[in-house]
Amino acid sequence: MNIETVSTRPFPGQRPGTSGLRKKVSVFQQPHYLENFVQALFDILPDRAGQTLVVGGDGRFHNRVAVQTILRMAAANGFGKVLVGRGGLLSTPAVSAVIRKHACFGGIILSASHNPGGPEGDFGIKYNIANGGPAPERITEAIYARSGILSEYRIAAGTADVDLETLGTQRIGDMQIEVIDPVADYAELMQRLFDFDAMRAWFARGGRMRFDAMSAVSGPYARAILEGMLGAPAGTVVNGEPLEDFGGHHPDPNPAHATELIAAMSGPQAPDLGAASDGDADRNMILGRDFVVTPSDSLAVLAANATCVPGYRDGLAGIARSMPTSCAADAVAAALGIPCYETPTGWKFFGNLLDAGRATLCGEESYGTGSNHVREKDGLWAVLFWLNLLAVTGQSVDTLVRAHWARFGRHYYSRHDWEGIATERADALMSALRAKLPELAGRDCGAGLRIAQADDFAYTDPVDGSVSTRQGVRLIFDGGSRVVFRLSGTGTEGATLRVYLERFEPDASRHDLPAQAALAELIRIADEIAGIRSHSGMAAPTVIT
Ligand code: VG1
Ligand code: CO
Fold this sequence. Notes:
Layout: E1 2-7, E2 21-24, H1 25-28, H2 33-43, E3 52-57, H3 63-76, E4 81-89, H4 92-101, E5 106-110, E6 122-128, H5 137-147, E7 152-157, E8 168-172, E9 175-180, H6 184-193, H7 196-204, E10 209-212, H8 218-229, E11 237-238, H9 259-264, E12 273-277, E13 284-288, E14 291-293, H10 295-304, E15 319-322, H11 328-336, E16 340-343, H12 351-355, E17 361-364, E18 368-371, H13 379-393, H14 397-408, E19 410-421, H15 423-440, E20 451-456, E21 459-460, E22 467-468, E23 473-477, E24 482-487, E25 495-505, H16 515-518, H17 520-530, H18 532-536, E26 543-544
Parallel strand pairs: 3-4, 3-5, 4-9, 10-11, 10-12, 15-16, 15-17
Antiparallel strand pairs: 1-7, 2-6, 5-6, 8-9, 12-13, 13-14, 17-18, 19-25, 19-26, 20-23, 21-22, 23-24, 24-25
The protein binds alpha-D-glucose-1-phosphate-6-vanadate and cobalt (II) ion.
């Protein structure tokens, strides 16, 4: 193998955000841009020689080009072997499963997740460590630091492209490349967690489901498992072919972007279960007939019913949720007598809790749910969990959720996104809000809402003691209502302000209000205190979930 050492200069801004480095495709297409980041990563992994790496992505535009580059660089940087999904495809949870099953050194995931794809869209790259989970901050910061002083990278020169379509082993120099079936290891793991017989019987009894893969990477997984192994009728999975531009849509499973699914789930003829997943298949949305389950409620319902499912029959060690996620899971944890951990936004913060056996289920309000079976959130896993619950309880989605509210109370919840704010304006809003914090505690905001606590969330990891500060401004009211403000760390254009709104309602006779109405006073207070409209110059949020 001929190794070429290419001179390069650092690109500014190669700092991974909430989940990897995400930029416009045109940024990644610049000569040396991807190579610099990958070399910075390899440079901070001194014990990589001879190790096995997993590589795959969500199939978006630029995926194949990037996979070929990474394979050549891995060979030139001394890796012993790479496992790559056929066609360069692997969902994020499948990468995690493959790393764990084959005890690999780590993995590279090519995805910008729920961000749109195509030549005008976004691309992304993320590194996962040997536990199968996203690299923690000390590693992402080391990559960033290295990217700032890099002067060369190494790549195998003069080799033909790897044939990504044929399963089996090939080589670049001394490095082995094994093209693997992207679905097999994942499907086997699902079979160990869920009651496939019960779910097969549910379909055989006439249970109906619609899984919208949003033209993203979950399609092959959902088809193989739902239609292949569980006997769901052909056509249960829609938009099941991964497309480089996701058909021009945001592959983001929420009521704002999965409008086709919402429409299909309404009316008496609608299927019993609706579900969707995002670009890299780690998010999930769950719907019943004329009923949308919020992600925070989903986590709580799964936790409360976990022992109905084989993989969790022995109960849960604990639950973990990101700070802005509603406290519905906390109520379940309290009833079960298990701890509930509150972490910053981003799945990387769950890794230590899962590794230490402190948490079994984890969730985020952003349509992310998962467990200790991998170290990523897992869209299809959550869908199978719900399907398993429907199959063994014989109940509908809305009956399960309403019964849950009746027992634990309802945590009304919504997230308002203000997208495309000029970065300076968004920063000014957050600075002004932070400056105001000391005077907010004790303030009476009207409508019976008094601020009990106002702070900027900081987290000390209970396992390794690492500290993460400035993770979101919280206003916590008497009675547990909350408003949380933070800026997105996954966008590629301007800033996105996320405003998270939550109100607890114990009274079962008041569990049927529309969420925006139930949260109206908190929405008013959020704008009064943060000056969202005046800072952003916008009249309304761009996305409400
Ligand atoms: C968003 C979500 C966060 C999630 C992250 C990655 O981050 O809010 O909960 O972990 O996306 O998900 P941010 O910083 O934009 O709020 V994915 O499916 O985009 O990898
Ligand atoms: Co995702």
